[in-house]
Amino acid sequence: MTTPLTGPQSYPAPPPFPAFPPPLPPVPPRRRRRGLVAGGVALAVLVAGGGAGAWWWTRDGDGSPLAGRPRVADDAAGLSYAVPKGWEHDSKHKLINAFTTAIGRKKQDDHHTAAVLAGRSGAIPQDRLRMWAERAARSNAEFFYPDRPVAPEESRPTSVDGHPAHTVALRVDAEEGGPARLRMTLLRVDDTRTAFLLGIDQPAGGPVQEEVDQVLESAEVTGGGKATEERPEAGGRSGSGAPSQALPAYGTDRRRL
């Protein structure tokens, strides 16, 4: 049994990957969770629930791989991101509160699956983005792939639409379906809120991984950052818009569930 984190506390420079992750979102029993992951990673976060707004629009001419593709505008998280060809949303389902919007790739070749999920949290100082990105990535790896070995692949500062951000990539030794890759980009929307994009693909590598990276790299800050009423005509799939439990509020008691 791991020792839980306690807080509030001071924040020295963290090790590359902290030993103890922050709290996880509410999850089904462990056996059930593994079954959901094996059947497709996007299904693990779908439950009935309320909605924050998400709408779809297109954008051309920026020269990126996803130029001209539809985009999700996530009002709750305060960002937008592109939707690759072959990816989709499902208006029949809603998300758990840890996430605000999501898109997924069908098993077009009966092999690869992938999903990108967005969420929001409270303000995080720029010099703590790395620590929280690494912790949150570890926690989400444990959420989707319980008790599986995880290895760091990447941890680097970046920017999203001119806003400071940090990107972390992990490789997970999944039980079924080959190794999985999880990539999270955590960004400061403004001084009061933070947003993130979480991409997961399995098995890792190849064009599907490239698509996940392209979605994360297509992100733009819209400045919304607040939960809004759902817009049924858009058909977007969304969560509650509440601050994400996938990324705990900065400076709060972070006891592991």
Automatic annotation (TrEMBL):
Which keywords does UniProt give here?
Membrane, Transmembrane, Transmembrane helix
- Where do the TM regions start and end? 36-57
Superkingdom of origin: Bacteria
Q: Where is the composition biased (Pro residues)?
A: 11-28
- Location of region: Disordered: 1-32, 217-257
- Which protein are we looking at? Uncharacterized protein
Q: Which organism is it from?
A: Streptomyces mobaraensis
